[in-house]
């Protein structure tokens, strides 16, 4: 499912504009990395796309087969299509299985509804996908920070979203698990045509997996490009530092800031 931003504006009450006139279309089956300094609007944009916040003006439109603005949809309907993973989610006093099962709520009749066989199967699939099946009946409060993060993403996958929105998804993960997570997100985008949009401060990690990059700068969209087109000049403008680039095998590129 495509997601399109039409001249999007947003400001928190009494504050300066956080986002100012964003226009972009994010295609299904692709990973898009949101890059920018703290305060550039990455988290705000993700919350707008998840329907948690409402734009002051402009529209966010979910593409075919729905072809509707988020403004026309209630929270439950939005949750049929969009799953959101926040930066830091404190673990609830539930088992991992029961927590991931919460991802099925938008597809059920309410809190009192009994989970169907399909619900239980999808939870098990999500736990397997995130390699949490052995921890299914462990309390969330007993997990490490990285395991909690994996469980949060498993819940989002159990939701079966067409659009998966993640704010700093590799927080609390060591390098090995960062790579494993990004592999799993790419697999979801390719196998299920899921539109995956994530913010990240690690530029090189983001660019190894993302298909496209949205560069947010001073409330505006500086560039929305394939990651292969990113330049040192883009990053210098974005972060206020001079960058160098190293090109390795298989056309992989690595960026790092010059020392002062």
UniProtKB/TrEMBL annotation:
Keywords: ATP-binding, Nucleotide-binding, Transport. It comes from the Bacteria. The keyword Transport applies. Residues 3-243 form the ABC transporter domain. GO terms for molecular function: ATP binding; ATP hydrolysis activity. It holds the Pfam family ABC_tran. This is ABC transporter related.
């Amino acid at each position: 499912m495509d997601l399109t931003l039409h001249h999007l504006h947003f400001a928190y009450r009494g504050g300066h504009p956080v986002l100012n006139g964003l226009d972009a279309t994010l295609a299904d089956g692709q990973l898009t990395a949101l890059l920018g300094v703290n305060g550039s609007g990455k988290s705000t944009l993700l919350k707008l796309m998840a329907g948690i916040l409402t734009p002051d003006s402009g529209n966010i439109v979910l593409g075919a087969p729905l072809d509707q603005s988020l403004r026309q949809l209630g929270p439950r309907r939005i949750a049929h299509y969009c799953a959101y993973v926040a930066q830091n989610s404190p673990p609830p006093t539930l088992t991992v299985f029961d927590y991931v099962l919460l991802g099925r709520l938008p597809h059920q009749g309410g809190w009192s509804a009994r989970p169907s066989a399909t619900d239980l199967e999808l939870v098990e699939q999500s736990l397997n996908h995130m390699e949490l099946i052995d921890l299914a009946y462990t309390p969330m409060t007993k997990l490490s920070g990285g395991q909690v993060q994996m469980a949060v993403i498993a819940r989002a996958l159990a939701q079966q979203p067409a659009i998966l929105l993640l704010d700093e998804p590799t927080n609390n993960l060591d390098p090995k698990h960062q790579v494993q997570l990004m592999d799993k997100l790419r697999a979801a985008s390719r196998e299920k045509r899921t539109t995956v949009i994530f913010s990240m401060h690690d530029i090189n990690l983001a660019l190894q997996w993302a298909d496209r990059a949205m560069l947010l700068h001073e409330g505006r969209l500086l560039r929305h490009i394939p990651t292969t087109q990113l330049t040192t000049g883009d990053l210098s403008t974005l972060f206020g530092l001079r960058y160098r680039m190293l090109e390795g095998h298989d056309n992989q590129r690595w960026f790092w800031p010059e020392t002062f």
